[in-house]
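Hi F.,

I've been meaning to write this up properly since the lab meeting, where we talked about keeping a consistent format for the predictions we share between groups. The idea is simple: the sequence comes first, exactly as it goes in, then the structure tokens exactly as they come out, then a line or two of notes. No screenshots and no reformatting. I'm using this chain as the first example so we have something concrete to point to.
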Amino acid sequence: MPHRKEIEVNGRTYRWPEAPVVVVCVDGSERAYIDKAVAAGRMPWTAGILKSGTDLTALSVVPSFTNPNNLSIVTGRPPEVHGISGNYFYDRETGTEVMMNDPKFLRAGTIMAAFQEAGASIAVVTAKDKLRKLLGNGLKFDGSAVCFSAERCDETSMAGNGIDDARAWLGCEVPDVYSADLSEVVFKAGVKLLAERHFDLMYLSTTDFIQHKYAPGDSVANDFYAMMDGYWAELDLLGATLVLTADHGMNPMHHADGSPNVVYLQSLLDDILGEGKTRVILPITDPYVVHHGALGGFATAYLPEGADVAEVVMKLSAVPGLEWVGTGTEGCARFGLPADRMGDIIAISARNTAVGSSPEGHDLSKLKEPLRSHGGLSTQAVPMIVNRKLEGLDPSATIRNFDAFAIGLNHAAQMAEAAS
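Output, unedited:
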């Protein structure tokens, strides 16, 4: 069957799917989780696909946080294009610090919305409700699209998101937001949606609760990956071209005694420029601080007018635990970030170190395990696993996690029809 059309979205061209294309973003999934679970015999489907399909490594967006990476995946472009530079930012226009979970902050349309406009059917299921409005932006709930979160699947009527009472439809209780069950609902819904209705494109996005608490190879982590493996096998049996990637990896950021290993940027800037003269923004900040206490690997700071930015960068670059420090202009150019949503400097911590504001600026009382978090360069490498062999992919090209839909549609979709 010939391709019906090609769709251009944000300057990239995508072929029409000949079989359902399902892109999965496993929040916080560094490759070691998969390798350990496969070695333990807990992921038999994945073990087979690593041999019969395609096994790549991709680079995520920096800052390696949830919102910028999910939006990069669904727009196919970096934050400098779609505008979502973190979970949280400082709005210069209003002079306020706000969550970046409102579609008004988006500057580009999604691949799913463009395909629906051209006649495709779309399904989006996300674990956390903070992403639902962003991922579903532009979708029309006219019977050809579904978009809901596992976190709020208990609403009595979700007709406005394309489905009535998702909890009853799934036959499950509402999962605790701090649980592996939240992600399992995402996959349970994905399999049921694909089995009951033919969706051309599907996007499934999980939560990283498990990865924040448990290291690769831990029995709880292996249980979590075994659960996902079973659902991936079901999606495969339903004929989907399956593209598995992640928004970021995960690192231990603690001392040997289990206490957090943190460089406090606000405290450093207070010493350099004077107390209260600067504003530090931690883009990892979101409502789910039990995971990480708002400690991650990336920070940006706003300096007072007239400050010697180069001198501040030089002094911070000498601080142990900071891997990269540069001006906002340098950081935006290097990492593809929107300049108006970053400060005068950007600081990225080293692999096993977090960057925070000040000791009193973080409530760590709810951290029950040693800190594991993400955000910097060391959590940028993520898996890209496809249940098909690929054609026409430049072997010398750097693969980004936001190439996921291009890989599934442009390099694997024809293979999916042949395989079926």
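Notes:
The chain has a mean pLDDT of 91.
The CA atoms of residues 388 and 415 lie 7 Å apart.

If this format works for you, I'll send the rest the same way.

G.
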